[in-house]
Design brief:
This protein is an all-beta fold. Helices cover 0% and strands 55% of the residues. The protein has no helices and eleven strands. The strands form two sheets. Strands 2, 4, 5, 6, 9, 10 and 11 form a seven-stranded mixed sheet that branches. A four-stranded antiparallel sheet has the order 1-3-8-7, with no helix packed on it. A hairpin with a 4-residue loop joins strand 7 and strand 8.
Length: 116
Amino acid sequence: QVQLVESGGGLVQAGGSLRLSCGASGLTLRSYTMGWFRQAPGKEREFVAAINWSGSSTDYKPSVKGRFTISRDNAKSTVFLQMNSLKPEDTAVYYCNASSGSRQFWGQGTQVTVSS
């Protein structure tokens, strides 16, 4: 059974930092592109960042580029999202995603709240 479990969310003031983690089990992490998505209240889920299987290629939503960094440790089956210079508009539930071809898995999400 595949499980993705996010952690590290919380309440932070604008300008602060958080580091999200996504622990994976039941799958071989290096076989998957990993991503982070987020969903704010009343809005659709949106892409935030992605990283290829080896970590050699990353992609970011333009509004987080330069502030957020995605990374992975395949040996520890964990993916990270370092979020710096947080803004109130970053407030959302953040979800971890694993994708490989037609296979796709989601975590349950972790709340990030940025106060102004």
